[in-house]
Design goal:
elongated; Ammonium transporter fold; 168 residues; 71% helix
């Protein structure tokens, strides 16, 4: 059996590796979309897919993760802004050795979990991007991506993965 600190390291590392692999799906979606549209629109597809990750990362950090996982009731989590490391992780970074047991007991770094969840949020927006290629203006799609990644996906995700009413 692996000790808790070793388990923490392995889980955190794997969240980051799996997240990076999932992020590579965006490159695949971009190539698929660019090959399916007219040549004049290929650069717009590339820009749109870069924008997806930019918007999804910020929106999920600012609001989405809290809606999906923090203090989830039946429908959604907390409407607090900004997400960051846990208090125990911050205490450990400040040199408090007593916080090590609490951090290791969590099983993984909180921010590695945020990254892993964020790439799935962005992937959901990428799927929609392929479905509407050449059919929407860029800024309209970016507005939709903001709403999807900050509110819609996190609330629906909270219903199941966050412990909401579907998890019951």
């Amino acid at each position: 059996m692996i000790e808790p600190s070793g388990q923490f390291i392995l889980n955190t590392f794997m969240f980051l590796v799996w997240g990076a692999l999932i992020m590579w799906m965006a490159a695949g979606f971009t190539m698929l979309e660019a090959g399916a549209v007219r040549t004049k629109n290929a650069s717009m597809i590339c820009l749109k897919n870069i924008g997806i990750y930019s918007i999804a990362g910020l929106a999920f950090y600012l609001l989405g993760y809290n809606l999906m996982y923090v203090d989830v009731g039946d429908l959604w989590g907390s409407f607090t802004f900004l997400y960051g490391p846990s208090g125990d992780e911050l205490a450990l970074l400040d040199g408090d050795a007593a916080a090590e047991a609490a951090v290791a007991a969590n099983g993984y770094s909180v921010m590695s979990d945020w990254f892993f969840q964020m790439v799935f949020v962005a992937t959901a927006a990428s799927v929609v991007s392929g479905a509407i290629a050449e059919r929407i203006k860029m800024w309209s799609f970016f507005a939709f991506t903001l709403i999807l990644t900050a509110i819609i996906y996190p609330i629906v995700g909270a219903w199941t993965w966050g412990g909401g009413w579907l998890a019951q």
